[in-house]
Amino acid sequence: MSDVGTKELRIVGFLCNWCSYGGADTAGVGRFKQPTDLRIIRVPCSGRVDPLFVVRALLTGADGVLVSGCHPRDCHYSEGNYYARRRLEMLRRLLQFMGIDEKRFHYTWVSASEGQKWQQVVTDFTKQVHELGPLHDKKEKAD
Amino acid sequence: MSTEKLKEIILKVLPDVDTVIGWQEGFDKIHITPFFMKSPEDAEKAVWNSLCVQNLAAYLPSLKKKTAVIVKGCDSRTIVQYMQEGLIDRSNVVIIGIPCTGVVSVKKVLKAVDYQPIEDVKFSDEKIIIKTSKGEKTLAIADVCPDKCKTCQYPTPIVYDHLAGDPIESTKPAESVYEDIKEFEKKSLEERRDYFKNEFDKCIRCYACRNACPMCVCQDSCIAETRDPHWITQKLSSEEKMMFHMIHAVHLAGRCVECGECERVCPMDIPVAKLKKKINSEMKELFDYVPGVNPEDKPPMYTFNVEEAKIKEHKL
Protein backbone atom coordinates (compact mmCIF):
# COMPACT_ATOMS: atom_id res chain seq x y z
CA MET A 1 0.00 0.00 0.00
CA SER A 2 1.36 3.33 -0.99
CA ASP A 3 2.19 5.86 1.62
CA VAL A 4 0.30 8.50 -0.34
CA GLY A 5 -2.97 6.87 0.57
CA THR A 6 -4.25 5.77 -2.83
CA LYS A 7 -3.59 2.64 -4.80
CA GLU A 8 0.06 2.03 -5.46
CA LEU A 9 1.45 3.07 -8.83
CA ARG A 10 4.52 1.86 -10.63
CA ILE A 11 7.39 4.27 -10.57
CA VAL A 12 10.76 3.20 -11.89
CA GLY A 13 13.89 4.82 -10.52
CA PHE A 14 17.27 4.67 -12.25
CA LEU A 15 19.85 5.48 -9.62
CA CYS A 16 23.56 5.85 -10.06
CA ASN A 17 25.58 3.48 -7.96
CA TRP A 18 27.89 6.07 -6.45
CA CYS A 19 25.65 8.88 -5.27
CA SER A 20 21.91 8.44 -5.48
CA TYR A 21 21.88 4.75 -4.66
CA GLY A 22 24.01 5.58 -1.66
CA GLY A 23 21.66 8.45 -0.87
CA ALA A 24 18.70 6.09 -0.95
CA ASP A 25 20.63 3.75 1.32
CA THR A 26 21.38 6.59 3.71
CA ALA A 27 17.68 7.41 3.79
CA GLY A 28 16.94 3.77 4.58
CA VAL A 29 19.58 3.51 7.29
CA GLY A 30 18.24 6.75 8.79
CA ARG A 31 14.79 5.15 8.79
CA PHE A 32 13.20 8.02 6.91
CA LYS A 33 9.65 7.18 5.93
CA GLN A 34 9.22 6.93 2.14
CA PRO A 35 6.41 5.94 -0.21
CA THR A 36 6.83 2.45 -1.61
CA ASP A 37 5.76 3.05 -5.21
CA LEU A 38 9.31 3.44 -6.42
CA ARG A 39 11.17 0.44 -7.82
CA ILE A 40 14.86 1.15 -7.93
CA ILE A 41 17.20 -0.03 -10.67
CA ARG A 42 20.84 0.51 -9.90
CA VAL A 43 23.00 1.69 -12.79
CA PRO A 44 26.74 2.41 -12.76
CA CYS A 45 26.26 6.08 -13.64
CA SER A 46 23.47 8.39 -14.74
CA GLY A 47 25.35 8.49 -18.04
CA ARG A 48 24.43 4.83 -18.40
CA VAL A 49 20.76 5.74 -18.57
CA ASP A 50 19.79 5.56 -22.20
CA PRO A 51 16.79 7.84 -22.77
CA LEU A 52 15.20 4.76 -24.30
CA PHE A 53 15.22 3.06 -20.87
CA VAL A 54 12.81 5.72 -19.77
CA VAL A 55 10.70 5.44 -22.90
CA ARG A 56 10.56 1.67 -22.62
CA ALA A 57 9.52 1.88 -18.99
CA LEU A 58 6.77 4.38 -19.72
CA LEU A 59 5.48 2.42 -22.69
CA THR A 60 5.40 -0.93 -20.95
CA GLY A 61 3.68 -0.16 -17.72
CA ALA A 62 5.44 2.42 -15.60
CA ASP A 63 3.41 5.42 -14.50
CA GLY A 64 6.44 7.53 -13.76
CA VAL A 65 10.21 7.42 -14.14
CA LEU A 66 12.80 9.03 -11.92
CA VAL A 67 16.45 9.30 -12.83
CA SER A 68 18.95 10.39 -10.25
CA GLY A 69 22.71 10.75 -10.37
CA CYS A 70 25.62 12.54 -8.78
CA HIS A 71 25.56 16.31 -8.67
CA PRO A 72 27.27 17.99 -11.64
CA ARG A 73 31.05 18.13 -10.93
CA ASP A 74 30.73 15.14 -8.58
CA CYS A 75 30.38 12.31 -11.08
CA HIS A 76 32.40 9.25 -10.11
CA TYR A 77 33.44 9.00 -13.77
CA SER A 78 34.07 12.76 -14.01
CA GLU A 79 31.62 13.53 -16.79
CA GLY A 80 28.89 10.91 -17.08
CA ASN A 81 26.20 13.07 -15.60
CA TYR A 82 26.98 15.95 -17.96
CA TYR A 83 26.06 13.76 -20.90
CA ALA A 84 23.05 12.47 -18.98
CA ARG A 85 21.87 16.00 -18.33
CA ARG A 86 21.76 16.82 -22.05
CA ARG A 87 20.08 13.58 -23.02
CA LEU A 88 17.48 13.65 -20.29
CA GLU A 89 16.61 17.27 -20.96
CA MET A 90 16.10 16.38 -24.62
CA LEU A 91 13.93 13.45 -23.59
CA ARG A 92 11.86 15.50 -21.17
CA ARG A 93 10.92 17.89 -23.94
CA LEU A 94 10.26 15.08 -26.39
CA LEU A 95 7.96 13.16 -24.04
CA GLN A 96 5.91 16.24 -23.44
CA PHE A 97 5.61 16.73 -27.21
CA MET A 98 4.40 13.17 -27.62
CA GLY A 99 1.66 13.68 -25.14
CA ILE A 100 3.18 12.14 -22.04
CA ASP A 101 2.90 14.60 -19.19
CA GLU A 102 6.33 15.97 -18.34
CA LYS A 103 5.46 15.48 -14.67
CA ARG A 104 5.74 11.73 -15.13
CA PHE A 105 9.44 12.03 -15.74
CA HIS A 106 11.94 13.68 -13.48
CA TYR A 107 15.70 13.76 -13.29
CA THR A 108 17.63 15.10 -10.37
CA TRP A 109 20.92 14.94 -8.52
CA VAL A 110 21.22 13.41 -5.04
CA SER A 111 24.53 12.67 -3.32
CA ALA A 112 25.24 9.71 -1.05
CA SER A 113 25.02 11.83 2.08
CA GLU A 114 21.69 13.45 1.21
CA GLY A 115 19.32 10.92 2.78
CA GLN A 116 16.95 13.69 3.72
CA LYS A 117 16.90 15.10 0.23
CA TRP A 118 16.29 11.63 -1.20
CA GLN A 119 13.28 11.19 1.02
CA GLN A 120 11.99 14.55 -0.18
CA VAL A 121 12.52 13.70 -3.85
CA VAL A 122 10.77 10.34 -3.60
CA THR A 123 7.88 11.72 -1.61
CA ASP A 124 7.33 14.71 -3.86
CA PHE A 125 7.71 12.77 -7.09
CA THR A 126 5.40 9.98 -5.95
CA LYS A 127 2.86 12.57 -4.94
CA GLN A 128 3.16 14.28 -8.29
CA VAL A 129 2.61 11.03 -10.20
CA HIS A 130 -0.32 10.12 -7.98
CA GLU A 131 -1.96 13.41 -8.83
CA LEU A 132 -1.87 12.39 -12.49
CA GLY A 133 -3.03 8.84 -11.80
CA PRO A 134 -2.16 5.76 -13.81
CA LEU A 135 -0.71 6.22 -17.29
CA HIS A 136 -2.07 2.97 -18.66
CA ASP A 137 -5.58 1.58 -18.58
CA LYS A 138 -4.82 -1.52 -16.63
CA LYS A 139 -7.28 -4.26 -16.06
CA GLU A 140 -7.94 -4.12 -12.37
CA LYS A 141 -7.05 -7.33 -10.65
CA ALA A 142 -9.19 -8.38 -7.76
CA ASP A 143 -7.01 -8.35 -4.71
CA MET B 1 20.21 24.64 -64.39
CA SER B 2 20.57 22.35 -67.33
CA THR B 3 21.37 18.68 -67.44
CA GLU B 4 24.02 19.51 -70.06
CA LYS B 5 26.08 21.50 -67.58
CA LEU B 6 25.83 18.65 -65.11
CA LYS B 7 26.98 16.09 -67.69
CA GLU B 8 29.94 18.29 -68.48
CA ILE B 9 30.99 18.26 -64.83
CA ILE B 10 30.41 14.51 -64.54
CA LEU B 11 32.68 13.87 -67.53
CA LYS B 12 35.29 16.14 -65.99
CA VAL B 13 35.43 14.36 -62.62
CA LEU B 14 34.85 10.80 -63.87
CA PRO B 15 38.53 10.00 -64.61
CA ASP B 16 39.56 10.81 -61.02
CA VAL B 17 36.92 8.78 -59.24
CA ASP B 18 35.65 5.23 -59.13
CA THR B 19 31.97 6.11 -59.42
CA VAL B 20 29.81 9.16 -59.86
CA ILE B 21 26.48 8.81 -58.10
CA GLY B 22 23.67 10.61 -59.85
CA TRP B 23 20.15 10.00 -61.08
CA GLN B 24 18.65 8.32 -64.12
CA GLU B 25 15.19 7.66 -65.40
CA GLY B 26 13.37 4.83 -63.67
CA PHE B 27 10.66 2.47 -64.83
CA ASP B 28 8.41 5.33 -65.82
CA LYS B 29 8.78 9.02 -66.43
CA ILE B 30 7.92 10.12 -62.94
CA HIS B 31 10.21 7.75 -61.05
CA ILE B 32 13.84 8.72 -61.05
CA THR B 33 16.31 6.28 -59.52
CA PRO B 34 19.85 6.59 -58.18
CA PHE B 35 22.46 5.85 -60.80
CA PHE B 36 26.06 4.72 -60.33
CA MET B 37 28.08 6.01 -63.27
CA LYS B 38 31.36 4.35 -64.15
CA SER B 39 31.95 5.30 -67.79
CA PRO B 40 31.44 8.34 -70.05
CA GLU B 41 28.60 6.44 -71.76
CA ASP B 42 26.79 6.24 -68.42
CA ALA B 43 27.13 9.97 -68.00
CA GLU B 44 24.97 10.45 -71.08
CA LYS B 45 22.06 8.83 -69.27
CA ALA B 46 22.28 11.06 -66.23
CA VAL B 47 19.35 13.36 -65.59
CA TRP B 48 18.57 16.31 -63.37
CA ASN B 49 15.09 17.67 -62.83
CA SER B 50 12.66 18.27 -59.99
CA LEU B 51 11.99 14.55 -59.72
CA CYS B 52 15.51 13.78 -58.49
CA VAL B 53 14.37 13.39 -54.93
CA GLN B 54 16.70 10.77 -53.45
CA ASN B 55 19.40 11.83 -51.04
CA LEU B 56 22.43 10.29 -52.72
CA ALA B 57 24.85 11.33 -49.99
CA ALA B 58 23.46 8.45 -47.94
CA TYR B 59 25.61 6.01 -49.91
CA LEU B 60 28.89 7.62 -48.90
CA PRO B 61 29.72 5.98 -45.54
CA SER B 62 29.50 2.51 -47.05
CA LEU B 63 31.78 3.24 -50.03
CA LYS B 64 35.53 2.79 -49.74
CA LYS B 65 36.76 3.99 -53.13
CA LYS B 66 36.90 7.61 -54.17
CA THR B 67 33.41 8.65 -55.15
CA ALA B 68 31.74 11.69 -56.62
CA VAL B 69 28.22 12.42 -55.56
CA ILE B 70 25.62 14.84 -56.90
CA VAL B 71 23.83 16.68 -54.14
CA LYS B 72 21.07 19.23 -53.73
CA GLY B 73 21.25 21.82 -50.98
CA CYS B 74 19.39 19.67 -48.46
CA ASP B 75 21.48 16.59 -49.28
CA SER B 76 24.68 18.52 -48.69
CA ARG B 77 23.75 18.84 -45.02
CA THR B 78 24.07 15.07 -44.80
CA ILE B 79 27.68 15.33 -45.97
CA VAL B 80 28.42 18.08 -43.45
CA GLN B 81 26.96 15.92 -40.69
CA TYR B 82 29.08 12.95 -41.83
CA MET B 83 32.10 15.21 -41.62
CA GLN B 84 31.19 16.30 -38.10
CA GLU B 85 30.85 12.71 -36.99
CA GLY B 86 33.92 11.46 -38.87
CA LEU B 87 31.91 9.03 -40.95
CA ILE B 88 33.50 9.96 -44.25
CA ASP B 89 36.92 11.03 -45.41
CA ARG B 90 36.34 14.34 -47.18
CA SER B 91 39.40 13.86 -49.40
CA ASN B 92 37.79 10.69 -50.73
CA VAL B 93 34.63 12.43 -51.85
CA VAL B 94 34.04 14.79 -54.75
CA ILE B 95 30.88 16.79 -54.26
CA ILE B 96 28.97 18.07 -57.27
CA GLY B 97 26.48 20.57 -55.96
CA ILE B 98 23.24 21.59 -57.62
CA PRO B 99 21.42 24.75 -56.61
CA CYS B 100 17.86 23.50 -56.28
CA THR B 101 14.63 25.44 -56.37
CA GLY B 102 12.54 22.62 -54.95
CA VAL B 103 11.71 19.05 -55.84
CA VAL B 104 8.43 17.27 -56.43
CA SER B 105 6.78 14.78 -54.13
CA VAL B 106 5.88 11.79 -56.30
CA LYS B 107 3.22 10.77 -53.79
CA LYS B 108 1.47 14.11 -54.12
CA VAL B 109 1.63 14.02 -57.92
CA LEU B 110 0.24 10.50 -58.11
CA LYS B 111 -2.55 11.50 -55.80
CA ALA B 112 -3.34 14.52 -57.95
CA VAL B 113 -3.71 12.36 -61.07
CA ASP B 114 -5.75 9.77 -59.22
CA TYR B 115 -3.02 7.10 -59.40
CA GLN B 116 -3.33 6.73 -63.20
CA PRO B 117 -0.33 5.23 -65.00
CA ILE B 118 1.96 8.04 -66.08
CA GLU B 119 2.70 8.28 -69.78
CA ASP B 120 4.82 11.35 -69.93
CA VAL B 121 6.16 14.12 -67.72
CA LYS B 122 7.24 17.54 -68.91
CA PHE B 123 8.49 20.63 -67.15
CA SER B 124 7.83 24.20 -68.07
CA ASP B 125 8.80 27.08 -65.83
CA GLU B 126 7.92 26.06 -62.24
CA LYS B 127 5.21 23.73 -63.51
CA ILE B 128 5.05 20.01 -64.05
CA ILE B 129 2.83 18.63 -66.81
CA ILE B 130 1.68 15.05 -66.29
CA LYS B 131 0.24 13.05 -69.14
CA THR B 132 -1.90 10.04 -68.36
CA SER B 133 -4.36 8.05 -70.44
CA LYS B 134 -7.05 10.39 -69.14
CA GLY B 135 -5.40 13.52 -70.44
CA GLU B 136 -2.90 16.10 -69.30
CA LYS B 137 -2.68 17.75 -65.93
CA THR B 138 -0.57 20.80 -65.10
CA LEU B 139 0.55 21.25 -61.52
CA ALA B 140 2.63 24.01 -60.00
CA ILE B 141 5.78 22.53 -58.46
CA ALA B 142 5.20 24.65 -55.36
CA ASP B 143 1.88 22.84 -54.83
CA VAL B 144 3.28 19.33 -55.05
CA CYS B 145 6.63 19.84 -53.32
CA PRO B 146 7.51 17.91 -50.17
CA ASP B 147 7.03 19.86 -46.94
CA LYS B 148 10.77 20.33 -46.48
CA CYS B 149 10.96 22.49 -49.62
CA LYS B 150 8.38 24.91 -48.26
CA THR B 151 10.81 26.07 -45.58
CA CYS B 152 14.10 25.29 -47.34
CA GLN B 153 16.96 27.35 -45.96
CA TYR B 154 19.77 25.88 -48.01
CA PRO B 155 18.89 25.77 -51.72
CA THR B 156 22.59 25.93 -52.56
CA PRO B 157 24.77 23.12 -51.20
CA ILE B 158 26.78 24.07 -48.11
CA VAL B 159 29.85 22.14 -49.25
CA TYR B 160 30.77 21.38 -52.84
CA ASP B 161 33.76 20.99 -55.15
CA HIS B 162 31.87 21.77 -58.35
CA LEU B 163 28.69 23.74 -58.61
CA ALA B 164 26.40 23.14 -61.54
CA GLY B 165 24.69 26.49 -61.88
CA ASP B 166 24.67 29.77 -60.01
CA PRO B 167 24.24 29.85 -56.22
CA ILE B 168 20.77 30.89 -55.08
CA GLU B 169 19.67 32.40 -51.80
CA SER B 170 16.80 31.08 -49.74
CA THR B 171 13.66 33.17 -49.94
CA LYS B 172 11.96 31.48 -47.00
CA PRO B 173 12.14 33.11 -43.56
CA ALA B 174 14.29 31.21 -41.04
CA GLU B 175 11.51 31.34 -38.44
CA SER B 176 9.20 29.33 -40.67
CA VAL B 177 11.24 26.13 -40.30
CA TYR B 178 9.75 25.02 -36.99
CA GLU B 179 6.40 26.71 -37.39
CA ASP B 180 4.53 23.42 -37.85
CA ILE B 181 6.05 22.13 -34.62
CA LYS B 182 4.94 25.22 -32.73
CA GLU B 183 1.50 24.91 -34.24
CA PHE B 184 1.28 21.25 -33.20
CA GLU B 185 2.33 22.07 -29.65
CA LYS B 186 -0.75 24.21 -29.24
CA LYS B 187 -2.81 21.04 -29.12
CA SER B 188 -3.63 19.55 -25.76
CA LEU B 189 -1.63 16.72 -24.25
CA GLU B 190 -4.38 14.18 -24.98
CA GLU B 191 -4.75 15.34 -28.57
CA ARG B 192 -1.04 14.97 -29.14
CA ARG B 193 -0.97 11.57 -27.53
CA ASP B 194 -3.89 10.34 -29.64
CA TYR B 195 -2.37 11.83 -32.75
CA PHE B 196 0.88 9.92 -32.38
CA LYS B 197 -0.89 6.76 -31.32
CA ASN B 198 -3.07 6.84 -34.43
CA GLU B 199 -0.21 7.72 -36.73
CA PHE B 200 2.20 5.14 -35.39
CA ASP B 201 -0.52 2.50 -35.31
CA LYS B 202 -0.46 2.64 -39.09
CA CYS B 203 3.17 1.52 -39.04
CA ILE B 204 3.79 -1.87 -40.63
CA ARG B 205 7.36 -1.94 -39.34
CA CYS B 206 8.93 -2.31 -42.75
CA TYR B 207 11.81 -0.16 -41.44
CA ALA B 208 11.97 1.68 -44.75
CA CYS B 209 12.37 4.95 -42.85
CA ARG B 210 15.41 3.58 -41.09
CA ASN B 211 16.88 2.08 -44.23
CA ALA B 212 16.50 5.31 -46.14
CA CYS B 213 17.76 7.50 -43.31
CA PRO B 214 21.24 8.80 -44.12
CA MET B 215 22.10 9.17 -40.44
CA CYS B 216 21.02 5.64 -39.47
CA VAL B 217 24.50 4.32 -39.95
CA CYS B 218 24.14 1.20 -37.78
CA GLN B 219 21.94 -0.44 -40.42
CA ASP B 220 22.29 -4.21 -39.89
CA SER B 221 23.18 -3.83 -36.21
CA CYS B 222 20.17 -1.61 -35.50
CA ILE B 223 18.85 -2.34 -32.02
CA ALA B 224 15.34 -2.53 -33.44
CA GLU B 225 16.27 -5.93 -34.85
CA THR B 226 18.96 -7.36 -32.62
CA ARG B 227 18.04 -10.18 -30.25
CA ASP B 228 20.65 -9.17 -27.75
CA PRO B 229 19.81 -6.58 -26.51
CA HIS B 230 16.20 -7.37 -27.25
CA TRP B 231 14.72 -3.88 -27.30
CA ILE B 232 11.56 -4.61 -29.22
CA THR B 233 9.71 -7.81 -29.97
CA GLN B 234 7.83 -8.89 -33.07
CA LYS B 235 4.58 -8.41 -31.21
CA LEU B 236 2.05 -6.40 -33.21
CA SER B 237 1.16 -3.71 -30.71
CA SER B 238 1.15 0.04 -30.67
CA GLU B 239 3.74 0.03 -27.86
CA GLU B 240 6.25 -1.79 -30.02
CA LYS B 241 5.57 0.49 -32.98
CA MET B 242 5.88 3.55 -30.81
CA MET B 243 9.09 2.15 -29.34
CA PHE B 244 10.59 1.71 -32.78
CA HIS B 245 9.87 5.30 -33.71
CA MET B 246 11.26 6.49 -30.40
CA ILE B 247 14.47 4.55 -31.04
CA HIS B 248 14.75 6.23 -34.41
CA ALA B 249 14.06 9.67 -32.98
CA VAL B 250 16.32 9.40 -29.94
CA HIS B 251 19.21 7.96 -31.94
CA LEU B 252 18.92 10.92 -34.29
CA ALA B 253 18.80 13.50 -31.50
CA GLY B 254 20.82 16.46 -32.72
CA ARG B 255 21.86 14.57 -35.86
CA CYS B 256 18.80 14.63 -38.10
CA VAL B 257 19.53 16.76 -41.17
CA GLU B 258 15.86 16.99 -42.12
CA CYS B 259 16.32 15.56 -45.60
CA GLY B 260 12.83 14.08 -45.36
CA GLU B 261 13.81 10.69 -46.74
CA CYS B 262 12.00 8.85 -43.93
CA GLU B 263 8.69 10.45 -44.80
CA ARG B 264 9.24 10.09 -48.52
CA VAL B 265 9.75 6.33 -48.34
CA CYS B 266 7.06 5.60 -45.76
CA PRO B 267 4.44 3.42 -47.46
CA MET B 268 1.87 4.32 -44.81
CA ASP B 269 2.31 8.11 -44.95
CA ILE B 270 3.28 8.42 -41.31
CA PRO B 271 4.79 11.80 -40.35
CA VAL B 272 7.94 10.03 -39.22
CA ALA B 273 10.07 13.16 -39.18
CA LYS B 274 7.89 15.06 -36.74
CA LEU B 275 9.59 13.77 -33.58
CA LYS B 276 13.00 14.45 -35.08
CA LYS B 277 12.03 17.92 -36.08
CA LYS B 278 10.86 18.60 -32.56
CA ILE B 279 14.21 17.46 -31.17
CA ASN B 280 15.99 19.65 -33.69
CA SER B 281 13.97 22.67 -32.65
CA GLU B 282 14.99 21.99 -29.04
CA MET B 283 18.63 21.57 -30.03
CA LYS B 284 18.44 24.97 -31.69
CA GLU B 285 16.98 26.52 -28.59
CA LEU B 286 19.16 24.74 -26.01
CA PHE B 287 22.51 24.62 -27.73
CA ASP B 288 22.06 26.95 -30.70
CA TYR B 289 22.92 24.02 -32.90
CA VAL B 290 21.61 23.19 -36.35
CA PRO B 291 22.66 19.78 -37.70
CA GLY B 292 24.61 19.61 -40.94
CA VAL B 293 25.47 23.25 -41.35
CA ASN B 294 29.00 23.78 -40.10
CA PRO B 295 31.58 20.97 -40.52
CA GLU B 296 33.49 22.29 -37.48
CA ASP B 297 30.53 21.89 -35.08
CA LYS B 298 30.18 19.00 -32.70
CA PRO B 299 26.78 17.27 -32.37
CA PRO B 300 25.31 18.38 -29.02
CA MET B 301 24.83 14.87 -27.66
CA TYR B 302 28.52 14.10 -28.23
CA THR B 303 29.70 16.83 -25.95
CA PHE B 304 28.74 18.91 -22.89
CA ASN B 305 29.38 22.09 -20.98
CA VAL B 306 30.07 21.95 -17.26
CA GLU B 307 27.65 24.84 -16.86
CA GLU B 308 24.71 24.54 -19.21
CA ALA B 309 23.39 28.00 -19.87
CA LYS B 310 19.91 26.93 -20.82
CA ILE B 311 19.27 23.73 -18.86
CA LYS B 312 17.78 24.66 -15.53
CA GLU B 313 17.37 22.25 -12.69
CA HIS B 314 13.77 21.15 -12.45
CA LYS B 315 11.91 21.45 -9.19
CA LEU B 316 9.31 18.98 -8.15
Structural class of chain A: alpha/beta
Residues in β-strands, percent of chain B = 5-15%
Number of strands of chain A: 4
Q: Roughly how much helix do the residues of chain B carry, as a percent range?
A: 25-40%
Rounded to the nearest angstrom, the distance between the terminal CA atoms of chain B is 58 Å
What's the quaternary structure here?
heterodimer
Unreliable parts of chain B: none
Provide the succession of SSEs of chain B: HEEHEHEHEEEHEHHHHHH
* Shape, principal axes of CA atoms of chain B: globular
Q: Mind telling me which CATH architecture of chain A this is?
A: 3-Layer(aba) Sandwich
- Cα end-to-end separation of chain A: 12 Å
Number of helices of chain B: 11
Our count of domains of chain B comes out at 3
Average pLDDT over all residues of chain A: 92
Describe the protein in words.
The complex is a heterodimer of chains A (143) and B (316). Chain A is an alpha/beta fold. Chain A has four helices and four strands. Chain A has helices spanning 20-29, 51-59, 80-98, 115-132; strands spanning 11-16, 38-43, 64-69, 105-109. Chain A has a four-stranded parallel β-sheet with strand order 2-1-3-4, sandwiched between helices. In chain A, helix 3 links the parallel strand 3 (64-69) and strand 4. Chain A starts with 10 loop residues before the first strand and ends in an 11-residue tail after the last helix. Chain B contains eleven helices and eight strands. Chain B has helices spanning 3-13, 40-45, 73-85, 106-112, 147-150, 179-185, 189-201, 208-212, 238-251, 261-265, 273-287, and strands at residues 19-25, 32-37, 67-71, 93-97, 118-124, 127-132, 135-140, 162-163. In chain B, helix 7 crosses helix 9 and helix 9 (238-251) runs parallel beside helix 11 (273-287). The longest helix of chain B is centred in the last third of the chain and has 15 residues, at 273-287. Chain B is globular, with a radius of gyration of 20 Å. The chains are: A alpha/beta (143), B alpha/beta (316). The interface between A and B is large, with 35 and 37 residues.
